From TrEMBL:
Protein species of origin: Segatella copri
Name listed for the protein in its UniProt record: Uncharacterized protein
Domain of life: Bacteria
Length: 66
């Protein structure tokens, strides 16, 4: 069984990069036909009513795919 844990954003530089978020969601975006063209997704997590919320980021923003 896999356990999902958010990445804690702690330094001032990290908070600036992730738009003041306290946590960041990170994921792999695999391209099975071209593994070398796979990407990583980093998205700030905000909290609403005690639940995590991932908001779509601008393509040219700092939280886009890398």
């Amino acid at each position: 069984m896999m356990v999902w844990l958010p990445l804690k954003v702690e330094t001032a530089a990290q908070k600036k990069m992730f738009h003041g978020a306290d946590y960041v969601f990170m994921a792999d975006m695999w391209n099975p036909k071209h593994l070398s063209d796979s990407r990583h997704l980093w998205v700030p997590i905000s909290w609403e009513n005690g639940a995590p919320v991932l908001k779509k980021q601008k393509k040219n923003g700092r939280s886009a795919c890398f």
